[in-house]
Amino acid sequence: MGQRSERTLLRNARVLTCTGDPHEAPFDGEVLVEGDRIAAVGAGSLGVDEAGARVVDLRGATVLPALADCHVHTSWPLDFVFDHGAEAAAPPAEHALDLAAVARTFLESGYTLVVGAGVLQPDDDLLLQRFVDGGLLPGPRIVPSGLMVADARGLGADGGLMEVASDAAGLREIVARQCDAGVKALKLFISGDGVVPEHPSEDVYMDDAMLSAAVEEADRHGAFITVHARSAPSVAMAARTGVRLIHHACFLDDDAVAALEARGPDVWVCPGLHYLWAMVSGHAEPWGITREQVEASGYPHELEAQVEGLGRLRQAGVPIVAGGDFGHQWTRHGTYAAELERYVELVGMSPTEAIHTATRNVGPLVGLDWGQMRPGALADLLVVDGEPAKDVSVLRDPDRRVAVVKDGAFAHVHPARFP
Ligand SMILES: [Zn+2]
How far is the CA of 85 from the centre of ligand 1 (A)? Predict the structure, then answer.
């Protein structure tokens, strides 16, 4: 992430700033990038001296902040089919190359920031972060996770794929150890998941003492706690104990919503709505996940509950961030923006509001001036042919992806489309 002195002027652009208005429409204008930051954004001409800048004509394409996914398993390779054990035991060299391919796929899909949601080999996110930040591999900024952490009574307690904690002291020790290794987003399992019949989504694991200890320890290390929490009581527990990022939150009750509301803009919910929708829509059937299994998992009911819950969260002003367990063959790597389509279709967000969940809502979560086009913000940008503020599905179309800018530099350009 070198500080460069170059200036790049993007002209003839449709600019979608994502600075706040959920009904923002793009305007015709220019963007000036200096080093790794946005220097100026404006309608019409910025009046920049072209002699001192690289001028790039976007020919009417839309420029918006680059996107983020806040629930990412880098360990799931491009050809992943639900076999976590095989990936955990994969030969390290092959696994490392799979990681590199995943990182490149995120970047080329317009995603320059990902938050880890648990890995299958302990250093996956950390290694990837080191190589990407060192300029050795193309990829997004990575907020690294480590191995997931299970409760001794809960999902993952067999210890095959997760670390296991049975009390607050044990959990604190695991959190401290992962943080010392460089992990910034700790992933704890505090509810079940309908896809594992003996651990239904309604279950709650861990307790207030354990979560409070984990939050305190992560905080001490400049890291934060994220949780897999599908049941309402698990969401309420996470909210009242200071967990920063709550994944799924499929079931909500008045307690859970009140606990989230009480946190103000200091807790984020990452639903993974597209994944549920794809499962319920039968998209996993070709890979052996039968309709009967999906019914038995309770996912159809869970999808309805989640859509209703997202409506309540929007009403309560709880920030929602996009992310969605992408990497299964039925929710392939590279289709990350499908999550935003579900927010529009099922939850009723405007396209721009849906885009906010992958841009402006994410900056404060990860402590970066990121995800908005305004002077001083990090210059991570996405250039697309089309009008994402009208039709968010253009973000998922590789042929419309003209360019991706990261840290003020062109990190990916469409080989055929870039001027
Ligand atoms: Zn996940």
Answer: 15
How far is the C-alpha of 343 from the C-alpha of 322, rounded, in Å?
9
Asked if 120 and 224 sit in the same domain, the reply is yes
Structural domains in the chain (count): 2
What's the distance, CA 347 to chain centroid? Answer: 18
Q: How far is ligand 1, taken at its centre, from the CA of residue 71, in Å?
A: 6
* Interatomic CA distance for residues 247 and 309, integer angstroms: 13
Please give the distance, rounded to the nearest whole angstrom, from the Cα atom of residue 378 to the centre of ligand 1.
Answer: 27
Query: What residue numbers bound the domain in which 143 lies?
Result: 67-366
| Contact (Cβ atoms closer than 8 angstroms) between residue 201 and residue 156 | no
Q: Compute the distance between CA of residue 404 and CA of residue 228 in angstroms, rounded to an integer.
A: 31
Residue 2, domain member (yes or no): no
- pLDDT tens-place string over residues 121-143: 999 999 999 999 999 999 999 99
pLDDT in tens, 354-393: 999 999 999 999 999 999 999 999 999 999 999 999 999 9
Q: Return the structure tokens found at 202.
A: 């309604």
Mean pLDDT over 145-153 rounds to 97
In the structure encoding, which two tokens stand for residue 251, read together? 């079931």
Q: How far is the CA of 117 from the centre of ligand 1 (A)?
A: 6
Name residues whose C-beta falls within 8 Å of residue 367's C-beta, 6 or more positions apart in sequence. Answer: none
